[in-house]
User: Fold these one by one.
Assistant:
Number 1:
Amino acid sequence: MKIKILIAALILFSSFAIKAQSVKEVNYEQFKPYLNNPSDTVYVINFWATWCKPCIEELPHFMTVAQDMRHKPVKFIFVSLDFPKYKESKLIPFIKENVINEEVLLLNDPNSNFWINDINKEWSGAIPATIIYRKNQRSFFEGQVSYEELTENIEGKL
Amino acid sequence: MKKAAVLLFAFVLSISAFSQGYAPGDEAIDFKLKNIDDSYVSLKDYDSAKGFIVIFTCNHCPYAVAYEDRIIALDKKFKKSGYPVIAINPNDPVAYPSDSFEKMKERASEKGFTFPYLFDETQEIAKTYGATKTPHVFLLQKEKSKLVVKYIGAIDDNYQDSEAVKEKFVENAISSIVDNKDVAVNSTKAIGCSIKWKK
């Protein structure tokens, strides 16, 4: 049991150590803990893709807010829904080019009919979509989120 | 003042009811939209059809592109049994130039679409139906003079790989209708590209 915890801690630790520009590929089961982190931090989880124009339009707001709030307990996680076969040719070059220093995950799980509802019953599956949560306080947005909405919502949870 | 507030409330309610779109069991409206051959297409033109596989789709979206061959296969398989595919592009070509009417013509000829590919220029039909993304399927059944929504959602359960599909949602729904059974899975969800609404 202890060994399991140690291994889990190691994996967790190493995942923090790997900074941007390496993208972890996860299925829904592996991704789910990111939606339920019990810590005091406010988590901003943004579902996006490199080909999604409205996602790319709102990305600068997210980067600015992440920069503004770098001394606060706020963590941004960008969950890419790009096709896994384009990870090396499109996703990683995009992350480098746009200097995304926040964590990026690639959600590779075709069973979206299950996980879209499991993430939020209100979500139609269109992206962008954003979850902002701290413990049990949770907000969900389908569609773009403005700089103001984002700031206000995060501050409301801090 | 109070009256105005009540009116406003009713207005907001009616808008939110409108933006909800259809649910399975609802009656769907017909439309008259421009096809890539420059003719206008309405569902009432299809006398012998028993129903329709209405698919909101587009050129620019990788998820829609991933389904193109499967949409052609659906049309080939079900047109003869009375359920043709009717594809509709609801996107604003100002936001997505590759979704313009001209580009629709190009894509349809490149891929050899066997079905009408209509342009919902005012976006009224997508809004009324409640399409939010591409691809987004609405399976309609003719019941007397009505068009009844039988299924809403994805084509199948694997957008990445047609070989790995376990459940063919649209095909299963049509089989159930043809066998006079209730559609067991009448709504599903899938990731798709948000429809860009005109401002």
Number 2:
Amino acid sequence: MIATPELAPLFDGVEPRKAATRNAYGEALLELGASNPDVVVLDADLSGSTKTKAFGKAHPERFFNMGVAEANMIGVAAGLASQGKVAFASSFAMFATGKAFEQIRQSVCVPELNVKICATHAGLTVGEDGKSHQMLEDVTIMRVIPGMQVIVPADAVEARQAVLAAAEIPGPVYVRLSRASTPVVFSDDYRFEFGKAAMLREGGDLAIVAMGVTVAAALEAADTLSTMGIEARVLNMSTISPMDVGAIESAARDCGAILTAEEHQENGGLGDAVAQAVVRTHPVPMEMCGMNGSFGQSGTGDELLAHYGLDAAGLVARAQQLLKRKQA
Amino acid sequence: MTLSQADRAAVEAAARQIRIDTVRMVHAAACGHPGGPIGMADFMATLFLRHMNLSPETLHRPDRDRFVLGNGHTCAGYYSILSQKGLIPRDELLTFRKLGSRLQGHPHRTPDMGIDFSTGSLGNSLSVSLGMALAAKSNGWDTRVYSASSDGESQEGQIWEAATAAAHYGASNLTVLVDFNNVQIDGHMRDVMDVRDLREKYEAFGWHALDVDGHDIDAIDAALVAAREETERPSALICHTLIGKGVSFMEDQPGWHGVAPGDEDARKALAELGIEGAELEAMMA
């Protein structure tokens, strides 16, 4: 587990800085393009939105726009990787993982190839486009594939580092990225470590384990809970596969109750993954904040997070329910 | 251009060996797919003996030619030709489909045997082959990428995504050999899902496409030469074959797509392939 890192000044009276993780992806690709000649990038006619376009302009000979054909894009990426390339493939999370699931399993994970699927527009915060574009099942279907490594950065600072790390990690990697500008949680000194959870706040009454955009909400909820005399530990579980089971076990032993938070289905998502680790190590009461088996709908990202109980207020309410169970 | 008598005899012998090995492997495994590889034997032998520069000496050269077996269920014949090329020990062939074997029921990427990619799910192969071809081009290598596919696999939409992209990127170092035997699992293609004229389709997608008699070694060889000489477009060789060719009771029979011959049928098939006497008894022992 990463010891409590320096955080950006999130909720100390100033308006938090916001940035989109997809922009950080585009910047990281430019860095990789300059430093690693084996890096190639593929997109499926969404390069302006996924932010791969800048790489394409800088390195046209290493950029392949495959048109609106995601299954083929993943297969071509696998073929490139089989010949020694480090292939980054991007589309919206819905299409990159949904349309191409079978190709990811058969052509990327079975042969254990260096394909890095960096999918943007994941989750509810894609907003007004609605349920057809709000991918809420991608972490589930990626983390169950043997050998697939899954990273969900909490903010743009972590996203940049996770993308750079993905280029170095052998084998398939899935990186889940957002369209929306979201609060920047980390200071620039933060160092992402693949496979390690980061404790963002110490506390012993309960632990909130979050991934992606809900990490900021978890920190805000912890502040609110603190004013009520409840001290919450906050864990950023940015690597969801392989999971930092030690960090979960410690949280269960030290806090005696765990709340998970994710902009994703609880089924198969972070909630399930943490529950597996908890029951295998140190069973304690748990609650899950996530999508409970429904699709999303149109609205702004912030409206949707509040509607489905994934903002700080929603997490505080569930934390209070959880503490009643812990004390029962 | 026709082959010299000696060259043609070598290819014919390799094709016959593919057929014999396929019968023996599928019989020993008591499951698998005999009809396809027996029908593909002539073009697989021509490709591997006369065109692909894959051998124990070139195995680990990064710029050597590549092969992807799109119709992965026909891998008994693939394993046979790889063993004939010295890449798989002959005595390993009969471990096909058994627990712990490197010769999986559908190919698994195994660099030490020259198996360049994992296949078995129809539709995925042409995309992967295109990726290999693009990698070779971007490295400035004259690698050729060969992909076997089939009429049945051509029913998968992803094949046409890949065909579109291969033409767009001018992947002239990519050649697909389509085993067109008019048979798929559920029956004859005309009854299940007719893909019609694949040469016309590939041409319409911007490919250099040729119809080839898939049992005429000279014609197959000439088509592979033409594919090599094409400098602008990817090439599709539509190889018209007979499923089970050379084993009379398997020919044109959808039932032999995925059923293993029992003892009696295996004996009969091997006899038709010219195995007799003590050799036949030893094989059947």
